[in-house]
Amino acid sequence: MSRTSANSRRGFTLIEVLVSLAIGTLVLGAAVKLFSQAMGATFVVSQRAEMQQDLRASSDLLIKDISLAGAGLPTATGIALPQSGTKPIYGYAPSCVANNNCVPGNGIAYPCTSAGANPCDPTLYGLIPGFQMGIKPPGSPSKTDVITVVYSDTVFALPCYTIQTITTVAVTVQLPAVLPSSCVLTAPLVAPQPVTTLPPLAPELVPGDLVLVQSTVGGNSATAVGEVTNVTNNGGNNYTIAFAAGDPLNLNQPAAASGDLAQLVCASPNCPTTATATRIFVITYYLWMMPDPLGVGAGTPTLMRQVNGQTPIPVQESVVNLQFTYDTYNTNGTLLNAVGDGGYSTGTSFNLIRKINVIHLTTRAQMAGAQSGLMISKGYQTFDTQTSISARNLSYQNRYILTP
After folding, report:
1. What are phi and psi of 378, to 5 degrees?
2. Which one of 1, 47, 122, 292 has the lowest number of neighbouring Cβ atoms within 10 Å?
3. Rounded-to-integer distance, Cα 336 and Cα 325, Å
């Protein structure tokens, strides 16, 4: 017969239980701490990766547009625009930000040929700085910048059509049997391309598009820019492009003394064979406070891209800063200035801009970083990028002269 010790039935003492609980608590606390730090680090890294990915996509689009500034324009010195009472404008304006109503018609007036010109001669340049013309995002000490670039459309083969008639409010084009020398088609482009279709399908003209019309009058080259208000298919690859007055961007001004279609009026067969029409893109980047769907707070600062008179399109949310400087040089290659307005306030012309410096394109994380103890502060993460772009189409000069 065996006997069981009284000590073996007694179990753990209170001191043993307390020590075990203390050790278990320490081990569990350390595990929770390590897990929390790992989750915080994962949160930080995933946010940063998302910001980098979004910023890379938006900066690639911005840089592509800036690098094309001035491409295909007939002159680097700018294109004169009409002015009869109301100034022509391009898409963005602070008023649309205040009213949460960014639509064409609330725009910035085109710059004069020189600072302080009186009267002002509005001019379309290949690149138009907008120094501190943007919004002031929450927490920012200063206003952001706006930038506008202009270049011709090389996809839509509108130059393949010859101009039949030019009036003060319309241009009629016809695709000829033999394509003119101005028609440049790279694979897979073919002619004819429809000027308009229903329903709208790219790359046809639509209301709000801008068309550059060029012709030779009296031995002198003349140009005019109009905003498309309607396109009519006359049959047989013949179309009438209307530029009616009262367009949202105020580019169609038949009563203007110069800079409009009135200086190019002609009718077949008297229209010059060199007369061409080309769609151009006037692209503006700016920041706008995107309203919260639930109406909570001030909204989300968003990078917007507007093309011609079309509805602005959001490029990236949570962009909190957009700033540029511009390097201008004279014909001798001497640096004149590197400032935010391209030297416009001191009389420097935009056609002397040779390099565009993106000094701040800053994005903010979608969520605050309070979850991570690894962060120096518990606010939002930000990611800033800087780069410089050479707009070669603004600086190109034909220095090679053929001599007999």
Report:
1. -105, 25
2. 1
3. 13
Conformational region of residue 316, where left means phi above 0, alpha means psi within -120 to 50, and beta covers everything else = beta
Q: What is the largest CA-CA distance in the chain?
A: 133
3-state secondary structure the chain: CCCCCHHHHCCCCHHHHHHHHHHHHHHHHHHHHHHHHHHHHHHHHHHHHHHHHHHHHHHHHHHHHHHCCCCCCCCCCCEECCCECECCEECCCHHHHHCCCCCCCCCEECCCCCCCCCCCCCEECCEEEECCCCCCCCCCCCCCCEEEEEEECCCCCHHHCEEEEECCCEEEEECCCCCCCCCCCCCCCCCCCCCCCCCCCCCCCCCCCEEEEEEEECCEEEEEEEECCEEEECCCCEEEEECCCCCCCCCCCCCCCCCCHHHHCEECCCCCCCCEEEEEEEEEEEEEEECCCCCCCCCEEEEEEEECCCCCEEEEECEEEEEEEEEEECCCCCEEEEECCCCHHHCCCHHHEEEEEEEEEEEEEEEECCCCCCCCCCCEEEEEEEEEEECHHHHCCCCCCCCC
Strands 127-130 and 146-152: antiparallel
Q: Cβ distance 338 to 327 under 8 Å?
A: yes
Q: How far apart are CA 144 and CA 132, in angstroms?
A: 5
Q: Model pTM greater than 0.70?
A: yes
Give pLDDT < 50 ranges for the chain: 93-105, 116, 200-202, 370-377, 398-404
Residue labelled with tokens 């949570």: 318
Q: Which amino acid would we find at residue 183?
A: C
The two beta strands, 276-290 and 300-307, are antiparallel
Distance of alpha carbon 241 from alpha carbon 156, whole angstroms: 15
- pLDDT for the residue numbered 258: 74
Q: For residue 130, what are the β-bridge partners?
A: 146
- Give residue-wise pLDDT tens across range 106-165: 688 898 875 545 567 889 999 999 999 888 887 788 889 999 999 999 888 888 888 999
* 8 phi/psi in degrees, rounded to 5: -70, -25
Task: Enumerate residues 6+ apart whose C-beta is below 8 A from 295.
Answer: none
- What are the distances in angstroms from CA 184 to CA 154, 159, 222, 343? 8, 8, 22, 37
Q: pLDDT tens digits, residue range 213-222? A: 988 766 677 8
What is the torsional sign of CA 296, 300, 305, 306?
positive
